Amino acid sequence: MEKYFNINDAGASIRCKLYAADPKDVRTLVLYGHGFGGNKDNRAAERLAERLIAKNRGAAVLTFDWPCHGDDVRKSLRLPDCDLYLGTILAWIGRTYPAAVPYACAVSFGGYLILKYVSEHGDPFRKIALRCPAVRLYDVLVSSVLTDEDLKKLEKGKPALIGFDRKVAVDRTYLESVREADLTARDFMPYADEILILHGTKDELVPFGDSKEFAENNVIDFEPVENADHRFQSPEKMDFAIAKICAYFGLK
Fold first, then answer.
1. Residues 6+ apart with CB under 8 A from 53
2. In this structure, are residues 121 and 191 in contact, taking their beta carbons and an 8 Å threshold?
3. What region, left, alpha or beta, does residue 219 occupy, with left being phi > 0 and alpha being psi -120 to 50 degrees?
4. Which helix (H) or strand (E) holds 96?
């Protein structure tokens, strides 16, 4: 069962989607954070939900649109807004499903935001599974996403439109905030036992080596996925990743 709804709180209107066999009986909830330019109608999240719900009674997956993504109405992407959305959703989960065990699963940009939140607010999840997290998001944006033309626009104080499913306006203020919020300069060892990172060896967008080095420096479990690209477009690679995530969560 899929249910669309909005969380209207703290000055935000967050577009959400809940996968659950019975929305009134949620015992295990996985919060899923999509990647840059993505949205809550995420095929990878749907496949994860299909497996979890079929094999685990009371399991649910909650996806949502980050600011300026999907159906979100904000026009300017800002890290404090991303932080606000995540905190607001976690508060909603606590009120709505106080007995549910919360987990987190996130991809790329979503992985960066989950890690950033944990480093600044502590870890609210039992376990966190990240696929190809953009731990060096600034470098990814400058080297792999923004074109020379985009960078020239930013130098002139104009925003650049980048992304995939929906183009997101990125300006110098946002880019500078990402540069300053460097996850590789932060200590994640206190949370290492609760984090798993999976990364494709053929990732064309977020360097495999960045994730591996980040995991090693923080003693985080790291699972290389041979020949997987950034989006894990191979069904076999995606199924492998989902199986690893479920096992890491202690679920079927």
1. 19, 20, 21, 59, 60, 61
2. no
3. left
4. helix 79-96
**Residue 93 CB coordination number (10 Å):** 19
State pTM to two decimals. Answer: 0.97
pLDDT digits (tens, 9 = 90+) for 48-60: 999 999 999 999 9
CA–CA separation, 123 and 193 (whole Å):
11
Strand partners, 140: none
Number of alpha helices (DSSP H) and beta strands (DSSP E) in the chain: 8, 10
Q: SS3 breakdown of the chain: % helix, strand, coil, rounded to 5?
A: 40, 25, 35
Q: Which CATH number fits domain 2-135+187-248: 3.40.50.1820, 3.40.50.80, 3.40.50.300, 3.30.360.10?
A: 3.40.50.1820
Site of tokens 């159906």: 71
CA–CA dist 186, 22 (Å, integer): 39
Residues 103 and 110: their CA atoms lie apart, in Å, by 14
Q: What is the pLDDT of residues 126-165, one digit of tens each?
A: 999 999 999 999 999 999 999 999 999 999 999 999 877 6
- DSSP code, position 4: E
Alpha carbons 77 and 252: distance in angstroms, whole number: 37
Looking at this protein, which amino acid is placed at residue 106? A
Domain boundaries, given as residue ranges, for the chain = 2-135+187-248
> What span, in angstroms and rounded, lies between the C-alpha atoms of 172 and 224?
34
8 A C-beta contact, residue 159 and residue 153: yes
